[in-house]
Amino acid sequence: MYKSEKLAQNIRQMIENGVWKVHEKLPSLREQTQLSGYSLMTVLNAYQELEAQGLVYARDKSGYYVAERSTDLVNSKQPIQISLSPKVQINSVVFNYLKSIQAAEIVPFGSAFPNAELLYNAKFMQILAQQAKRKSSYNNQNHMPPGNQDLRQLIANRYQLQGIACHADDIVITSGALEALNLSLQALTQPGDFILLQQTIFYGAWQAAERLGLQVITIPEHPQFGFDLASFEQALKQYPIKVCWLMLNAHNPIGFTVSSEIKQRIAELLYEYQVYLIEDDVYQELNYGSSKPLPVKYFDQHQMVLHCTSFSKTLGMGARVGWVYAGPFSDAIQHLQLMSTLTVSPLLQNTLVEFISHHHYEKHLRQLRYNLEKYKKKFYQELKNRLAPTCKIYYYSSGYFLWIELPNGLDGQVLYEQLIQKGISIAPALLFKPDHASQHYMRLNCSFEWTAEIENAVNLLADTIQQK
Amino acid sequence: MYKSEKLAQNIRQMIENGVWKVHEKLPSLREQTQLSGYSLMTVLNAYQELEAQGLVYARDKSGYYVAERSTDLVNSKQPIQISLSPKVQINSVVFNYLKSIQAAEIVPFGSAFPNAELLYNAKFMQILAQQAKRKSSYNNQNHMPPGNQDLRQLIANRYQLQGIACHADDIVITSGALEALNLSLQALTQPGDFILLQQTIFYGAWQAAERLGLQVITIPEHPQFGFDLASFEQALKQYPIKVCWLMLNAHNPIGFTVSSEIKQRIAELLYEYQVYLIEDDVYQELNYGSSKPLPVKYFDQHQMVLHCTSFSKTLGMGARVGWVYAGPFSDAIQHLQLMSTLTVSPLLQNTLVEFISHHHYEKHLRQLRYNLEKYKKKFYQELKNRLAPTCKIYYYSSGYFLWIELPNGLDGQVLYEQLIQKGISIAPALLFKPDHASQHYMRLNCSFEWTAEIENAVNLLADTIQQK
């Protein structure tokens, strides 16, 4: 567990125990630094996470105060909500959306990709240019599924550093994480099977379910912990679920990272109910803390978890290479790959081998995380200053999205349509929870430097929201 | 029509008219050159095509003779054979096969890819290295489906040069031709639909049918013309076929190129029966003649044809970029793409734009065709010298495969298993006609320079065949 997470948990406990009452001021950042012995940054992160969870609120230049909360939220005794979703036609929604935001002149606050400027790495390009001159980069002999042996070994090493047993043969290299996720789902299901999704989730999961003819069960997010274990277990009991597709680190679009305790329990329940997990962990490297959060895969003693991630979110579309920790499902996934995309560019695979084995990747990640945190904090502060307190901004210490609850029930889709006319894209809730009534949310990409152009766009965004 | 094709047709007509009788010697190459006014190369190509069609046979150093043929073959009055194929489990066959031939020490006569040495292009690499240093090669903004606008325009221009109306918006860039073919089939069919395949065809078609749960109808190859129009029309009449998947240029694995007359009739029948065609034309640029053969797309007045091809067979896996002339189905195919692989490497798309627009591609293709013809002719001659006349070798003037009928009913799969033990791969008939009884065929990749190592492997291959 991270220091800030640990501190946030302690403070939460103290609030629940009545140490500070509602609307009472918490110790200032400086006081808390002295009290806890943690750095100012750790304390700030803890406070911001508590704020995102709705446990405290900030008053400008005055500090953090204990928020008013309904008892059932704090005690997490809310009624379990499980929905059997109707056949959702998500695909056309997403297609039209993606088409509308492609134009170069649109300010891409709706984009799923980090600002390409941040992913640019001169060393990567230099290695790529060198590799481009080698004949071996054009030969598929060593690059057919499951992919380049050296690259798979380097990936396996990274798992081992996290304490996760992994052999190069457990890994299958794919065309980005999206292919890893889709092939995993295809390998594990038949049309008509039940899968479990989070109520709010990356739209790719909804699309895959639609394409493969699967029945979707959703469980709601837990307002405090992100993941609702009670609903999860209830759903596993109630439905013949074959596979779960979950995102538990730097959740897209909301942003939360679920605690290790919950992940461990998820792994136990998977084994108990013999349900497979496709773990979408594409933002694992974008946690601002000193180490990356553990995946459920870490707690998986029985090969129930297929862990999917990629280099696309850290090195960009020029390195559109992903992978799945497939373990015993490696052959099944390669079968599917040989029928669809066949192989991932030998050139990119070779380049990644050089880049990673010479330790350039870690350095790049450090710089990337530093910038993402700086930009996201700036966006968060600027938005706080412009938006009314009824407009709740979820800030978490990872990734490059802010999830924003819109005031007065303003529908994200309505806002999106207004803003796109003004040359600004946002990602409305509809993309992530197409079957759900509460649509007054949006996701904002804030991986941009605070330029005059960005400031103008944020002003326009805030004005449009406030006019409602 | 090519000169050699025209000449072959004339000679065929004269044989059928009784100008030369069975076992009578045809004019020598030199005589025929003088008679016809064509070049020696054209005459040789015509004779070799007639030989491949079984109309003439060669005697070493003595010349070409009229072959004995059963009347029904020459008159193409064979009974129509249409099969409704059972659910074929092709996928495991192909998977195990591809795995077995991957090892670096295996002589890759079974490979589907041309020898990577031939695809190497220094200019391409140089441009790729330059592009690798540009930030725009890492930005997906202009490279999302349907793909880079400039690249699509260059591809459209190439269609226009062939006399095929084409707009950049008709094209969707894909991860190789395999994705183009698969997405096209997925866009046009529902599980349970009927599709029509050639009896002998690239195994990817069988795999796609299996994966999408389609019913397969096959029609046999015509022994003389490659494509059997009568069976085709009969099948369209008899079954509710939704889509055909055909290969008519440099057919894989057999090698024939169907005449323009037949292609025109296919286009008419497609419209008459309202059936779509997915045209696999991956070898369109590998015809040794001066111009590339027309696709059915050329005769398609009603947007019934989706034409699929790629750069992978001409520039190698380093340029794993394909496309489909999707026309009105562009949106449907992009839908599917956004759910699976999302986008094709911006770097490769940019590189191809530079490479093609500076006319390097045509030069590369000329050199590639020159080498492929040289190597394939050498293989053909050397095999003729080593194998008994009962072992029929199909030679056609394109691509890099020889299709070989094995003597004494020797099963291709049996031969494959013996040869793989000796470190040589071949592609047995089972991969291409999994539902058919006659398995005494193999496909041989002959895109290799005639080195001592290759000669040893060919000797071993010939010995193993002759020992049967």
What would your notes on this structure say?
- Chains A, B: Pfam families: Aminotran_1_2, GntR.
- Chains A, B: GO terms for molecular function: DNA binding; DNA-binding transcription factor activity; pyridoxal phosphate binding.
- Chains A, B: In the C-terminal section; belongs to the class-I pyridoxal-phosphate-dependent aminotransferase family.
- The structure is a homodimer.
- Chain A has about 475 residues and is an alpha/beta fold.
- Chain A folds into three domains: about 5-65, Orthogonal Bundle (Arc Repressor Mutant, subunit A); about 85-100 and about 145-360, 3-Layer(aba) Sandwich (Aspartate Aminotransferase, domain 2); about 365-465, Aspartate Aminotransferase, domain 1.
- In chain A, about 45% of the residues lie in helices and about 15% in strands.
- The first copy, chain A, has 18 helices and 16 strands.
- Chain A has helices at about 5-15, 30-35, 40-50, 70-75, 90-100, 115-120, 120-130, 150-160, 175-190, 205-210, 230-240, 260-275, 310-315, 330-340, 345-355, 360-385, 410-420, 450-465; strands spanning about 55-60, 65, 85, 170-175, 195-200, 215-220, 220, 225, 240-245, 275-280, 305-310, 320-325, 390-395, 400-405, 425-430, 440-445.
- In chain A, the strands form four sheets. In chain A, strands 3-6-5-9-10-11-12-4 form an eight-stranded mixed β-sheet, with helices on both faces. The first copy, chain A, has a four-stranded antiparallel β-sheet with strand order 13-14-16-15.
- In chain A, a hairpin with a 3-residue loop joins strand 1 and strand 2 (about 65).
- In chain A, helix 1 (about 5-15) packs across helix 3 and helix 7 crosses helix 15.
- Chain A is globular.
- The model of chain A is unreliable at about 70-80 (pLDDT under 50).
- The interface between A and B is large, with 58 and 58 residues.
